[in-house]
Amino acid sequence: MWQAFVDFIHQLIPWLDGGLADVIIILIKGIALILPLIIMMAYMTYAERKVIGFMQLRIGPNRVGPLGLLQPFADVFKMMFKEIIFPSKANIYLFLLAPILAFVPAVAIWAVIPMGEGFYITDLDVSLLYVLAIGSVGVYGIILAGWASNSKYPLLGALRSASMLVSYEIVIGFVVVTVVMIAGSVNLNTIVADQSGGIWNWYWIPLFPMMIVFWISALAETNRAPFDVVEGESEIVGGTHVEYSGMCFALFFMAEYINMIMMAALAVLMFFGGWHSPFEGVPYLETWFTFVPDIIWLLAKMSFFLFLYLWIRATFPRYRYDQIMRLCWKVFLPLTIVWIFAVALMTQLEIGPWF
Question: Which of 205, 308, 315, 346 has the highest CB neighbour number within 10 Å of its CB?
Fold first, then answer.
């Protein structure tokens, strides 16, 4: 798909040299990815209010547009026109840099996330390592926001959240190791290609404990309930965001939801066959569902995990900070280390279709 698009651009603008044409193609690809991503993020906020409202016997947004479908646009305009207030003793430069450091890595990660076979911006051989490296930069935005605000509440929120995020990044790193051991590659396209052949070839079977650990850690990494100690409204006023307003706050808000979508995509790519149909290799069903595009299968699987985000938020109360850290260091970390040895053993024994 992308190659046909590239050839079309080169034919459309033959007077451009190859390098400039490639730059234009990359810019068009970026816009084609970012705009749907921002729209998806906006309607995640709508879906969250609707789903949680349904679970709590409330109506949810229903006034702006039919069925409240224009509510996300109303939220955008409200944020755009709200005044940005700077604390009098804050470090203004770092105060403004913090939301940028939170938002830009969240978007940059999508440069290597494949949305279908051959449907990506760039195919890095180390794309999974790129995701981990760029994703870890977001914690600096939270730390800077807490420190630059020159207020005790944001500082306390930043300290708690930074320690939590760094801890769960270690766990996610060990989970990724088990995926890489099976696939023999850190390329996301290769990992998905290795899971072709139907639902029984997907990695969720040999890595079921790691899938659970990854998803719970993803809740912590994206600051979602019951691990939302970054905000912690009932405990520390508003966490690192307490001094932010207008579009500065919106950047933090957007980064959180874009990271949610990214974690859902990673869960699907690493454990649930990516864009592969679950009916591959199944007589009759494989033929019946060949008309479904790759990206539809991927989005359908991602939708399930995004729904889990909302379901869990409506169900569980916030954990205490000590409970969150105990879960990471005393439960998840030993479990992932043990499962690395289990995967190594299964690899040597060549168990099932995965090894």
Answer: 346
Kindly report, residue by residue over 130-152, the tens digit of the pLDDT: 999 999 998 999 999 999 998 88
Is residue 188 over pLDDT 80?
Answer: yes
Query: How many CB atoms within 10 Å of residue 312?
Result: 16
Residue 112: Cβ-neighbour burial (10 angstroms; 0-12, 13-18, 19+): buried
CB 259 within 8 A of CB 226: no
Burial code of 170-188, b = ≥16 C-beta within 10 A, e = fewer?
ebbebbbbbbbbbbebbbb
Instruction: Enter the tokens of residue 43.
Output: 């309607």
What is the pLDDT at residue 300? 95
For residue 113, the model assigns a pLDDT of 92
C-alpha 19, offset from chain centre:
32
Please state, in angstroms and rounded to a whole number, the distance separating the CA atoms of residues 248 and 245: 6
Confidence band, pLDDT 50/70/90 cuts, at residue 235: low
